[in-house]
């Protein structure tokens, strides 16, 4: 999940066509859920959009996962972060998002600043109907780089997010800035 939005919408159930998962969902199952949910026009249309800040609705994800429908005004993003021990997935329902990620696993604790190798940066565009899954400790930032169009996406994490680490980046140097707990974004 990303930083809190300026507008918060109430909790809403996931689409009724989502199958019930009885075991801990895999990253692939989280992606399947995100893609199916992103394709539900009634749910996507229910998200109030704010021109100034991100908005969201919390969803019931599969197998006890945490899930969110998120609206992204033009030019907004998450900043660099990870989802700790949670695996996850997200899918774009409307617009286009850009994900910048690092192809490296960071130490889980005990550091404040790291110099990254020159070949770890990855960038991918995710248009409507596309998504991606990721494993634990995945460091990325998600952006709506459009100057005029809102984007909407669905995100799912399992186990539910225990924390998120926020990072600053200056060239090849990544610095741990702070740690957020669920109370910070719910």
Task: Give me some keywords for this one.
five-stranded antiparallel sheet; globular; 2 helices; single chain; 186 residues; mainly beta
Would you spell out the secondary-structure blueprint of this structure?
Layout: H1 27-38, H2 41-45, E1 55-60, E2 66-72, E3 80-82, E4 87-94, E5 96-102, E6 113-115, E7 121-127, E8 131-134, E9 140-143, E10 151-158, E11 164-170, E12 173-180
Antiparallel strand pairs: 1-2, 2-10, 3-11, 4-8, 4-10, 5-7, 5-9, 6-12, 11-12
Could you describe the 3D structure shown?
The protein is globular and about 45 Å long. The N terminus is likely disordered. The longest helix has 12 residues. It is mostly beta strands. It has one domain: Jelly Rolls.
Tell me briefly what this model is.
Helix content is 9%, strand content 39%. It has 186 residues and is mostly beta strands. The chain has one domain (27-184): Jelly Rolls.
Total beta strands: 12
**Main beta sheet:** 5 strands, antiparallel
CATH architectural arrangement? Sandwich
Average residue pLDDT: 89
Poorly predicted sequence stretches spanning 5 or more consecutive residues = 1-12
What structural category arises from helix and sheet content?
mainly beta
